[in-house]
Amino acid sequence: MLNDSEFLRYSRQLLLEDIGLEGQEKLGQSTVLIVGLGGLGSPVSLYLAAAGVGKMLLADDDTLHLTNLQRQILFRTQDIERSKAELAKEQLQALNPQISYQVLTQRLTDKNLNEILPQVDLVLDCCDNMATRHAVNAACIQHRIPLVSGSAVSFSGQLMVLKPPFDHGCYACLYPEQQEPERNCRTAGVLGPMVGAIGSLQALEAIKMLAGGSSALEGKLQLFDGKRHHWTTLRLHRDPNCQVCGGQNANHGE
Q1: CA distance 108 to 114
Q2: Which of these CATH numbers, 3.90.1150.10, 3.40.50.300, 3.40.50.720, 3.60.9.10, describes 4-252?
Q3: Catalytic residues, which ones?
Q4: Of 11, 84, 150, 196, which has the fewest beta carbons less than 10 angstroms from its beta carbon?
Q5: What's the pLDDT tens digit per position in 148-174?
């Protein structure tokens, strides 16, 4: 049950028919894992903390660099060279001290993801490397955890929502190769509001699902052209030969 302070803090959400008291209580009982606390993870973590998600696992093995500040709005100039995960916890606690934060400063791998995910209700992939994205995707498939994935480079962004039983496939169906793409923010650059827009939409989908609603993006890939302000929506299809989700989904349907 919400206390008086929580009723005031979340009053504008409680007015929403799709959230209400029941949805707010579900948010407060939820645990999310945010993978990466950079340009995407900054708005994701801020909005989820503000919304009252009960527990947030903050995963990032990097320290803050001067070049990050152009887009990673969670941090400040005086924070340079400090752990991003530790800094994120400080900033989010200042925003909402009523929820719980756990810092994960090690790189996420198959092994530690398998230890972490049983306590998690939803994962937000906000990372910047393919190895971690594939490890997170595989762990979500194994533990049947919904995954909200976002990325952005230059003036382009993409967003997708994958949920059990993963009938529409997984990240590995779409991107089977694990090599880093030639175009990334280090080589092609990225505009700050691009990661802000995609990260905000990741948070939106997460809040809707955690509050008991559905995501209109399930099984879809949305591509955003920031120059033309144009969205393209593609429907995802499972690759029956996918080494990550193909066999599991085939067995699940038997």
Answers
A1: 10
A2: 3.40.50.720
A3: 185
A4: 11
A5: 999 999 999 999 999 999 999 999 999
